[in-house]
Design brief:
148 residues, mainly beta, 5-stranded mixed β-sheet
Amino acid sequence: MTTISILSDTHGLLREEVKQQLKNSAIIIHAGDINTQGIVDELRSFAPLYIVRGNNDKEWASELPTSLLITIEEVRIFIVHNKKDIPKDLSDVDLIIYGHSHKYDDKEVDGVRMFNPGSCGKRRFDLEITMARMIVEGSSFHIEKIKM
């Protein structure tokens, strides 16, 4: 069993409530718009980190990938910042994690789970401050919403 924290759109802010959640994580996934190397370094101090570059991650983030395809236990995960950058053929993927909109979203499309953890950084409009916890066991996974 692997416990994963999933977050996106921190925009230079790592809230104390988020740090508390990260303490219980074996892995962290960040779907972009980090805004500073300091946030990346702090995230890495909690657990191994899979991270992609967002549209607000400029020169400092040039080494970060724009997308990642990873496997955790037996779950195949594609990570990208903007939903519009998801490739058409992802028949070999179980879960797509994306950010950008700041809106929590969780649905299945053509047999693939599409998931956006929302934003746990700076508040945008009147949107909730959210992230997620995912538990992976073999080829099964469960995602739970965490509100700040």
